[in-house]
Amino acid sequence: MLEGERVIAGRRVIWRIGSAADAGVTASRLARACVQDLVRDHGLFPWRGIEQDDTSTKPRFAGAPDADFSISHSGAIVLVAVAEGAAVGADIERVK
Description:
- By secondary structure, this protein is α+β, with helices and mostly antiparallel strands.
- Helices cover 20% and strands 38% of the residues.
- It has helices at residues 20-23, 27-41, and strands at 2-8, 11-19, 50-51, 60-61, 67-74, 77-84.
- A four-stranded antiparallel sheet has the order 1-2-6-5. It has a two-stranded antiparallel sheet with strand order 3-4.
- Strand 5 and strand 6 form a beta hairpin.
- The protein starts with a strand and ends in a 12-residue tail after the last strand.
C-alpha cells in the first residue's frame, strides 16, 4: 500500500492505493477498510461508519457532515481519498 497527504485549496486530502489481490480480499472490502483506517490513523474524526440514505445517493460518513471520501477501483487496484471540509473525487483506470 502507498499513502500520501496533501493540502489542496486549504483542505487536507489523504489517499491510499493498494491491491485487493495482495490483501486477499475483494476490491470493495479493501476500499471500505482503507477509508476506515485513514479516518482512524489520521485522527480525522470519531469513526461512526458509513451511511447511505438510499441507492441514488452517494454514501457519506455517519456523524461527519464536513468530510467526504471517494473510492475507485480498476480490477484489483483500489484508490481511496478522504478530505476534510470539502468534496473529493478519486479515479483510477487500468492502462492497456
